[in-house]
Structures are given as C-alpha cells and as structure tokens.
Amino acid sequence: MFASSRITAKGIPLAALLVSFSCVGFAQQYGKKFAPYVVTPEHAVDRMLELANLKPGETLFDLGCGDGRILITAVQKYRVKAVGIEISDHLARSAAEKVKKEGLQDQIKIIHGDFMKQDLSSANVVTIYLETTANDTLRPNLERFLKPNTRVVSYDYPIPGWKEMGTAEAKGSHGFSHTIYLYQVPDSINKK
C-alpha cells in the first residue's frame, strides 16, 4: 500500500494532509494569492467542458491554468481558442511546453501573470478552481470584464452573489463527489 493512501488517526487521508502541508510552502511563495495548485482530474475536466457547452470558434480562459490540461482538452475536443493565466513561473512554463508538444501554439496562449490584472473581455467561457472566498474576491473582476452571457464554470466552489444556471457532479479520489457550477454573466451587471 502506498503511504499516501493510508488514513490518519483522525480519518483524514494522508494524501490530503500532505497537500495541506505543501500549501504552507505555496503561501510563503505567493503570499495572499488565491489557491494552491491542485490538479483537476481528467474526468472532471470533461464534465466542466460539457457543462460549459463550448462551441467551435469561442474563446475559453482558464484562470490559474496549472499544467494546461483544461486548455488542451478544450482545444482538441471543441475546436476553440484558449488562454491560460498562471502566476507560477514553473507551471506557466510547464503548460507552455505541453501546448508546444501537442502542436497547439496557434490555438492556446499561456500568460505568466496574475489573472486579477488581466483583461478577460474576449472570453466566451471562463473556468476556475478556486475556493469560495477567492471566487468572491474575483467576482467584481468577472463582472467588470466579462460580456453578458459569458459562461463561468467553477469546480468545487460556488461564486457568492451569483445564481448558478446548472450543476454537475464529478467523482474524485477517495470516493468524494465534487460539484461543478455553471454561471452566466447576466445582462443586468453594471460595468464599472
């Protein structure tokens, strides 16, 4: 049995504790940024993109794109353009290398930077995997930059103040179920 699959005395999987401890290093490196890097499982990526109802020619933005898996899957399956924004230099370089390896440099752009400082106005769909408090902090930027009817798909965490249009479930590791939230920017949002 691998050490990461053991359960601790308090019933918490050892892998979850290891992720928590690794977040301390992340917090020291990135200060008060939004979330540690946690890989979105491939089947969850598929469910997120299905829920987004992507159409050929649209543009998807992945905020905190990590290794670029959402971008690559979206371009390959749905024939869209994609932009990933990643604050970690290491992850941004890794994502760019994967994009190049797949020959998708003309369809996918990786931006090494802070998504809070980026113009998101060309997005038709935005994907995020941030905690609820981070989503709440991000919401004013989404409201300011996104056009009405832009779809926002959030893995695991709702966006406070917004009413979801739909949800989907995805099974995670250790049998946990994860909720995927679909939102649409309403016409009534006042641009600031």
Could you please describe the fold and organization of this structure?
Helix content is 34%, strand content 20%. The protein is of the alpha/beta class and 192 residues long. It has 2 domains: 32 residues, no CATH class; 146 residues, Vaccinia Virus protein VP39 (Rossmann fold, 3-Layer(aba) Sandwich), CATH 3.40.50.150.
Structural features:
7-stranded mixed β-sheet; 7 strands; disordered N terminus; 2 domains; alpha/beta; 5 helices; Rossmann fold; single chain; 192 residues; 34% helix
* Low-pLDDT residue intervals, each spanning 5 or more residues: 1-32
| Alpha plus pi helix count | 5
Biggest sheet descriptor: 7 strands, mixed
Helix content: 25-40%
* The CATH topology of the largest domain: Rossmann fold
> Based on DSSP secondary structure assignment, what is the total number of beta strands?
7
CATH class of the largest domain: Alpha Beta
Number of domains: 2
Order of helices and strands: HHEHEHEEHEEE
Structural class: alpha/beta
CATH architecture of the largest domain: 3-Layer(aba) Sandwich
Radius of gyration using CA atoms only: 17 Å
- Widest sheet: strand ordering: 3-2-1-4-5-7-6
Strand content: 15-25%
The whole-number mean of residue pLDDT values reads: 83
What's the name of the CATH homologous superfamily of the largest domain?
A: Vaccinia Virus protein VP39
Distance between the termini: 55 Å
Query: Which geometry do the CA atoms define?
Result: globular
